[in-house]
Amino acid sequence: MESKGLQPMDSEQLRENAHKMVDFIADYYKSIENFPVLSQVEPGYLRELLPDSAPNQPETLQNVLDDVQAKILPGVTHWQSPSYFAYYPSNSSVAGFLGEMLSAGINMVGFSWITSPAATELEMIVLDWLGKLLKLPEDFLSTGQGGGVIQGTASEAVLVVLLAARDRVLRKLGKNALEKLVVYASDQTHSALQKACQIGGIHPENCKLIKTDSSTNYALSPDLLSKAISDDISTGLVPFFLCATVGTTSSTAVDPLLSLGKIAKNNGIWFHVDAAYAGSACICPEYRCYIDGVEEADSFNMNAHKWFLTNFDCSALWVKWQFPPVENENWGGILLEFEVKDRNALIQSLSTNPEFLKNKASQANMVVDYKDWQIPLGRRFRSLKLWMVLRLYGLENLQCYIRNHINLAKYFEGLVAADSRFEGCKYCLSCQLAHLTWDKPLLGLVVLSMKCLLNPLEKMGNKWVVTPRIFSLVCFRLLPPNNNEDHGNNLNHDLLDAVNSTGKIFISHTVLSGKYILRFAVGAPLTEERHVTAAWKVLQDEASALLGRL
Amino acid sequence: MESKGLQPMDSEQLRENAHKMVDFIADYYKSIENFPVLSQVEPGYLRELLPDSAPNQPETLQNVLDDVQAKILPGVTHWQSPSYFAYYPSNSSVAGFLGEMLSAGINMVGFSWITSPAATELEMIVLDWLGKLLKLPEDFLSTGQGGGVIQGTASEAVLVVLLAARDRVLRKLGKNALEKLVVYASDQTHSALQKACQIGGIHPENCKLIKTDSSTNYALSPDLLSKAISDDISTGLVPFFLCATVGTTSSTAVDPLLSLGKIAKNNGIWFHVDAAYAGSACICPEYRCYIDGVEEADSFNMNAHKWFLTNFDCSALWVKWQFPPVENENWGGILLEFEVKDRNALIQSLSTNPEFLKNKASQANMVVDYKDWQIPLGRRFRSLKLWMVLRLYGLENLQCYIRNHINLAKYFEGLVAADSRFEGCKYCLSCQLAHLTWDKPLLGLVVLSMKCLLNPLEKMGNKWVVTPRIFSLVCFRLLPPNNNEDHGNNLNHDLLDAVNSTGKIFISHTVLSGKYILRFAVGAPLTEERHVTAAWKVLQDEASALLGRL
């Protein structure tokens, strides 16, 4: 490139311009509360603001930054705003941002070990670190028989293990058995599972989403699962994959891993655990119980890019290589024997070995080549940002971070409970005790045990009119006046629209047992109590206005 | 988080630390020539240098940067080094880096339009810009009937269109027809196609990789394709997908799009064009001819993250919605009629619509939701970096950038040709003329036409002992002494090892017609003539040493 404008990669031009960009981004965070949280632009707004084609001649960075300020930021929904309470969070952080910068700076493509040994090795090490913080069984660590890998998203995580499980069975039964393969999960499971089935050619009617209801707080019932499996085996189908969720997207329901895992094992089914959101909480001892039973799983996933201060994308997936037990299995009535070669089902399913990528280390089987653990070939140096998050914050700060959000959610829950126009989580006495003592782990556990003894969950469904808060998501709704449920859903839909249109906060919704429910997910890095208080005021004000108009 | 160490996202801490990181990265580029290009570490080197687990207490950024310098960078293979000539380039640039920073700074997750309208709309606009630079037919633009989308990699691009094509046929023939579906491509096609077939459940024997040889310079022969399709139809199989490549990974072979596209159209086959590497060159008028025929394609892909100054990842995919012609088709002997609903096959194949993501704009079909154009749900604001590359450099600079690399490759080719111990591209007289006049577009075209008239490609295979250089990749090899081909492959394998072990350059290899061939791919942003000269000296020196030991 001639001397016109920027050189492709001149270190001093990089320095000068990147310093400008740092200030732009720091200023953005400084002023982030001034923007509408949810962008209020109309569809197609940007085309009118930008030219039809790329320029022939270079423009200056200042030109572009001016456009970002004037034209792009108004169209941004500010996920990092302290008043962002929609979906689940997608954390940015100083450490995560620095890691992303460094990754973009080095800009290597780490598909094979040789293309940057540090990228592969740091990823293995850092996922071992995170696995240990989560107290994952040794089988999941690279120092044991398994190992971790960073995927882009939980969707890709569930897809790759579903493909591994599919191909492991098809190698036994022949590829025409595809039409017989059955996947199980609850109807609260993320839509990513259905998409994975669609991609992998699983017949849609064989993706069995077992109905849940408030009696289990929307968790998958082991009894219903067992029955579905037996029924399917009796009609000649082949159960092969079970996805359990810890912290569903709608309502943070927690599937009972231990019971489900045993059923999976007894039936030779690959057991995947999706803890995309709630996995982060499990670095706190008092929340680790929610993934008890993970030792029964073949694969486990949590998104460090959700609630763990690691900029998007960074979805951590661990697999055991030794699954299921190397024994004869009764699989859909067909006796299957898994052999040593089945230990690395993931790699068998996803590896390619073209001549142009062959190299000594890979050919000698001395190294991990992560290209064989994922859909794409190329991959960024994403472990840098997770490494920097773990080192620049440290475990204790990360635990405080999680607990702080959960406390803010509890605080919001209390605000909802105190306003009789709303319906939130209504606790029985022992639940209230558990609630109050939750942050004192030992006392909490005692009370929780009492609670379970006194009030088995199944019998309590009706007392939680919405669904209980477990982590940092509160589900609630505005009660329709005169208990007229005909208007309940529209009312809450209108309330959602009204609060989001203020630009002051952004929340989202779900539907549980036919009811339109509002979701308030605490988890943005800048959220403080005052933001929760202010959000509640917006909700109350808009509710008053709506009810006043009825 | 308490006051210990960094706050999760404090704007002033971000500013201070990110400025440090900018200097670290700028210093890296300043000193990049001092590192061995290919990392020389041994497998497992990093585990010995890092602790077993994450720290409880926070560490300082300086600690981490010291570790990056001392422990990570020695394990990095420096893709941005000016002496990197392996695989294909993966460009970093000032503009691309700034775009990546901004994307990481905003850190939104743009799965649906509403989650950041600017992200979706900028992506549509910028892919229209790039499509226009490539002179793609209007059908591929969002202002026409089609549109572009940024995928992570070319692997994902070919996967999503393969799935769209698969499901479009299966909707007609029933899902049990999967076993009959046939994919076509040359044996030079990137392994990503085979992986996509594996993922999509295409039976391996139905992924037909048609053999190529030097007689077509490793391009797919339309005659062989036609024959394969007829044979398959006659045995009851259903041809449904054809992937052509413009610039194969091994040798930059260019498949003849126009003839192949007509065959595809006549047989109702989805026609995908993979120009992952060479697509970038097509912004120069003199190289645009290599994608002539793209108007016959249903989808087209080029990687802006390869040779277009956009930091990894940024793979641009365009699809036509209106394909194939809405007429009756004779498809594997079965009459198929495509209807209006088949226009958006990609979205039909990949969309999900869970309650928790529903919103007014999406429900009203007023917007594009890119989640339905890709495998994952979440997605980064990648259009920012492509936008910044296009604006901060401008078309003319980008064309200079491409031409400069191609000229450097020509220069290297000349060096090889002048050393009789090596075998490179041996031109016939008219080819030499074409070669000499290539950078004078008009004259070049005249000579090229003469060449084609005088020496039809098919008859010339033997004159190019390796394969001709078209873009910025030179294929060559060291001739075995005394023409003893038994040693030829080992000799070149050893030469590759020897030059890469010096740490001075990094090149890679392929195998063509059974011969081990060295690949010299020019394309790193910092590469200048002096780096090519130095690389050639390394190759000559190591060759002399090797030959001297024989």
UniProtKB/TrEMBL annotation, chains A, B:
Q: What does the record give under GO molecular function?
A: carboxy-lyase activity; pyridoxal phosphate binding
What this protein needs as a cofactor is: pyridoxal 5'-phosphate
Q: Does the keyword Lyase apply?
A: yes
Show the GO cellular component annotation of the record.
Answer: cytoplasm
What's an example Gene Ontology biological process for this entry? carboxylic acid metabolic process
Sorted UniProt keywords: Decarboxylase, Lyase, Pyridoxal phosphate
Query: What Pfam families does this protein map onto?
Result: Pyridoxal_deC
N6-(pyridoxal phosphate)lysine PTM positions read K306
Provide the family line.
Belongs to the group II decarboxylase family.
Q: What is this protein called?
A: Tyrosine decarboxylase
Organism for this UniProt entry: Populus tomentosa
